[in-house]
Amino acid sequence: MTARYLKGLGCLRCLVCLGCFVFVAPLLAQNAPDVSGEWEATYVTPLGPQELKIYLQQEGPRITGHTTSEFGEFQVRGSINGNDVKLSWTEVDGGKELLIAVTGKVDGDTITGTASLGERGSGAFKAERTGS
Q: What DSSP element (H or E) covers 13?
């Protein structure tokens, strides 16, 4: 085999890889969930269920937003990797800050998982999208 032939094969491989990227990447991006929107959520605490609304915006893997509930409004930060989502915010309860950390999975317009309530334990978490 000549050097020219081998060089041509290398270029052909590059073109095939580039073509796969150009055509497959948009298809994969379409399948990635976007959690932007308004969500009605509930998580279980030792004192019973807590209901809240969560307003999320997603830019790539980064999630920002806020919650509203009877306890006030709190800033949300989070991330998403595939269908795995992580959200966290800090509430004030009895004058003390309480970190709420959610890990869950997105399935369409539903997020299910676990809410960790600092030293108070953890409970089931569920959110359903109510608006975009």
A: helix 3-31
Of 34, 35, 51, 53, nearest to 43 by C-alpha is: 51
What is the per-residue pLDDT for 92?
86
Q: What is the pTM of this model?
A: 0.76
d(CA 45, CA 121): 8
- pLDDT of the residue at 22: 43
Strand-pairing partners, residue 128, are 40, 110
Find residue 125's DSSP bridge partners.
43, 113
Name residue, tokens 């003390």.
Answer: 96
Longest dimension (CA), the chain: 79
Task: Give the chain's domain count.
Answer: 2
For residues 47 and 75, state if they share a domain: yes
Average pLDDT of adjacent 10-residue blocks, the chain of 132 residues:
59 49 46 92 93 97 96 96 97 89 98 94 97 76
Residues 82 and 113 in one domain: yes
